[in-house]
Protein: Diacylglycerol kinase family lipid kinase
Organism: Anaerobutyricum hallii
Amino acid sequence: MKGLFIINPSSGRQNFIDKIKEIAGMLVIDQICNTIDVFYTEKQDDALDKAAALEKGQYDFVVAVGGDGTLNEVINGVVLSQSNTPVAVISAGTVNDFATYLNLPQTPKEFCDMIADFKLKKVDVGKVNGKYFINVVAAGLLSDTGFKVSKDKKAVMGKLAYYLEGAAELPKQFGKSWKMKFVTDEKTVEEEILLFMVANSQSVGGFREIAPLASVSDGLFDIIIIKKMDIFQMLPLMLSILQGDHVNHPSVEYIQTKKLHIENLSGEEVKVDYDGEELPEGFPVDISIIPQAINIVVPK
């Protein structure tokens, strides 16, 4: 087999390059692969451009090495390339929600065994205002935290960097709410909200079951809308979220749908996150699903 590793060297975890070298060595020595090509990103969209240039049959698989943002770029590139190249994931970022949901390998041996077995799972991909995403679109309370954490902090502190930034931002943002309109084929919701998430997998923002009914291959998004509430209502909701039983909470609207239009009626700028990246054009947002658009290499 022939593989391409697209590596973001500035991803969150320190010393992960040694792990990549070990994996590449094992793949060749164990004769799982006869060729491994490596591409290091230097700036935004490098991973996207490299993956978009893939031709059908050029590689047996491409590996996204980094966090959710790197994976997002590789997915965008592979979809644009129309090469149907299977994607493997090595989590080197700080959160890695998608990898967590699919229980992807954490050790070099487990990863090499997965490549040797080469089991593929067809996965849905979302499209938001012309860009593709694999895991989530979100906006509202603390959803812009990821943009504010520097790469240096991520590298040294990992997930703790996000938690500290969130703790610093919460007092500034709490009490804020935004009026938004959500239009699906099934219903229209107009609410003052704290936060919304359009999830493809169950795991978002480090919470493993924020969208407990979600599946990456059911052809549906799971929309979680958290309505405006005071801090005394928020604490019990957080406990419900941690336990995965918040779907029926009175302050939560949970919708499954194939497409969605969202308008920001608040008159205030609100940043939109897609897979850890900022959506440049912001609102209004049009989201649709492309069923089983990508092949992901998964464990047996």
